[in-house]
Amino acid sequence: MRRALWLAASWRVRATTYIVLIVASIWVLTPFVWAIQNSIKSLTDTFNPAAIVPFVNYTPTLSSWIKVLSDNQAIPALLSSLIVSSGTTLLVILLGTPAAYSLAGFEFPIRSRDLNLWFYSQRVMPPVVVLAPFFILLVQLKLVDTWIGLILIYTTFNLTFGIVIMRDVFREISRDINDAAKVDGANAWQIFWLIAIPLSLDGLIVTGIIVFSFCWNEALFASAVAPQHAATLATFVLASRSTQGVNFNIAAVNTLIAIMPPVLMSLFVHRYLARGLTFGAVKG
Known about the structure:
The chain folds into 2 domains: 65 residues, no CATH class; 206 residues, MetI-like fold (Orthogonal Bundle). Helix content is 73%, strand content 0%. With 284 residues, the protein is mainly alpha-helical. Helix 6 runs antiparallel to helix 8. The chain is globular.
């Protein structure tokens, strides 16, 4: 069907589509190209506008990579980011999936539209507004500069997002399937675990990837409540600025290290992303 629509399109539509795709590709790939190129340059070459083609205008070097990876704080920061992001993703999935299924399959005194508005309002609120209260709360609980403290904060901000996404995913499941399972004697828990979860696997994976990416890239709370022992990669990148200013070769290496895990995850599960992101596009 899509092939037939493309073949039937006019040359203006095709030309416009190609132009938009080319511009979008350049817009997305330019930061990657910049980071890759500057990560193999010396500090002097990063300030040379003529240093464009490797082995022609400049000599590539891995000194920046060696310097970053040999830093005593780099590996612990990477480990902290993996633990905090994975822990938050797991907690959001465990708590948000049953809540989303309940909102999608059961009736509540409060209208579904009002619940959605409340969930969306949690994403609109600027995180900096609650930075001080969260910090005071973590001090009282003795969770400052700990993985658990960061996981709890990230879960608070991402749980509503996961619920909204998964609610639309569960609404896409036909009620006839649930009714057939009830006729066969399945209870609510069996329908949820044996039918709803397998059918919504695409949406679960998409939600997990998005939540993981949000946590991986978050820097405000990470630098404020976990600056030392539980410092994440985002905090490490922010602290890598020297007294002489920004070393663009070091910044390029940090950028690539920071963006590689989410990008690699999306490449491995791209087929789930393509279908999972379309859930809720038709139904309101």
